[in-house]
Design brief:
Elements (H helix, E strand, L loop, with lengths): L1 E5 L3 H12 L3 E5 L6 E7 L1 E3 L5 E3 L3 E7 L2 H6 L2 E4 L6 H8 L9 E4 L6 H7 L5 E6 L2 E6 L2 E6 L3 E5 L9 H9 L3 E3 L4 H20 L13 H17 L6 H14 L6 H7 L10 H11 L4 H19 L1
Parallel strand pairs: 1-2, 1-7, 2-6, 3-11, 7-8, 8-9, 12-13
Antiparallel strand pairs: 3-6, 4-5, 9-12, 10-11
Bound molecules: ketopantoate.
The site of ketopantoate has 12 residues, from helix 6.
Length: 309
């Protein structure tokens, strides 16, 4: 397939390399005007005993920023941060062929309303992944954690694209098609509401959140998120969410969360699309979410401190 990926961040590059390995033609649309670039992937795979084994580094060459390649693409994958989706769509909108499916994959929720009004004719899919990757510099990608990816239709015209889940599964397993993509999006939102703000505020690796000092706050975050999810129609319990969060903390113990990295590098975070989205939905349902509100305020303060420097 001819595929254009918008956003050469860690997740975009990881999928690009894995799809290229399956002989798909990957083209990038980035914020630079470079016509090509190379990436070294430090990949890993899971062995039968569920351990992660590193693979030898592999070099990938990609073309980029070619308008004609966008027009020829059979699939557009958007992996920019949630707050960049609107701009990314504006940049390429006039060049996407009619009926080309557009898949959107980012942490958090809340871009759906804009996407719906901007892309009336195109099949739109959303995706969420628990694969973890880290980009230590412009030329390298480290695949740091394995986890499932879910794909699903966001509008009626995307219903016929379930075969894309198989294509993604071949590239980077496991990947499945979900009949209600909002469910895995909410599940991932819950994980991000728990891990991302705390790891950014306390400047720690995800694994440190397993220590007893974080037990009460994580439990309350999960209670609040479960109440909002239930009001949205999802049959979750706070206990089950906490178990899931604990499992992810363990599986990604050595990771620095994306929010930690954003704060560390003095970049804008996705807090408004993670905890901020939860707070917005909580207000709609009349549910109090004091712990999440406190975490949202603390992260906003950290972001403000960048602006003051
Ligand atoms: O999605 C993540 C992130 O860092 O944004 C987790 C799951 C917390 C892994 O670090």
């Amino acid at each position: 397939m001819q595929i254009t990926i918008l956003g050469a961040g860690a997740i975009g590059c990881l999928w690009a390399c894995r799809l290229a390995k399956q002989d798909h033609h990957i083209h990038f649309w980035t914020r630079t005007d470079k016509p090509s670039f190379s990436i070294v992937l430090n990949d890993c795979v899971q062995t039968k005993d569920h351990a992660q084994t590193p693979l030898a580094p592999e070099l990938f060459d990609f073309t980029s920023n070619n308008i004609q390649s966008i027009a020829k693409s059979e699939l557009i994958i958007i992996t920019v941060k949630a707050f960049q989706v609107e701009q990314a769509l504006n940049d390429i909108f006039d060049h996407i062929a009619p009926h080309t499916p557009i898949m959107i994959m980012h942490n958090g929720m809340g871009t759906q309303q804009h996407v719906k009004t901007r892309l009336v004719d195109h099949p739109i899919l959303y995706a969420t992944t628990s694969q973890a990757a880290f980009k230590p510099n412009k030329e390298h990608i480290n695949h740091t954690g394995l986890g499932p990816t879910w794909l699903g239709a966001f509008n009626q015209s995307a219903q016929g694209f379930a075969s894309l889940a198989e294509l993604f599964h071949q590239a980077l397993a496991p990947c499945g098609w979900h009949h209600d993509i909002n469910e895995p999006l909410w599940q991932k939102l819950a994980i991000n509401c728990a891990i991302n703000p705390l790891s950014a505020i306390h400047r720690c690796q995800n694994g440190e959140l397993a220590t007893p000092q974080f037990h009460a706050v994580l439990t309350q975050v999960c209670h609040e998120v479960a109440a909002v999810m239930q009001a949205e129609g999802y049959a979750v319990t706070a206990k089950k969410l906490k178990q899931t969060v604990d499992t992810v903390i363990k599986a990604t113990a050595a990771n620095y969360s994306s929010m930690y990295q954003d704060i560390f590098q003095q970049r804008k975070t996705e807090i408004d699309y993670i905890t901020g989205y939860l707070i917005t939905r909580a207000k709609v349902h009349g549910i109090a979410v004091p712990m999440n509100t406190q975490l949202w305020q603390d992260v906003k303060l950290l972001e403000q401190n960048h602006d003051d420097k």
